[in-house]
Amino acid sequence: MKQASSRHYRRRAVAAAGAALLAAGVSLAVPAGPAQAASSSACQGGGFTVLGRSGTTDTTVVSPSATFTVKGTYVQFTVVAATFEVRDYDFLPTANKRDMTGGVLTPVWASKLPQHGGTLTSAVTLSLAGDAVNLRRTGTLASGRSLDMKIQAKDCAAGGIFQMEIGRADGAKTTFVHRLAGGARGPAPFFFDNANFRERIGDFVTADENGDTVSCLPGSSRFCVAVSARTNIGNDFSEDFVGRDSPQGGAAPDSTVRVPNTACGSTNVPSIAHCGDVSVWQVASGGRMGFVTGEDSVEVAPAPSLCVENCQAQNRVRGRLAVLGFPFPVPADDRLRTLP
Question: Which of 233, 289, 292, 279 shows the shortest CA–CA distance to 256?
Answer without folding.
Answer: 289
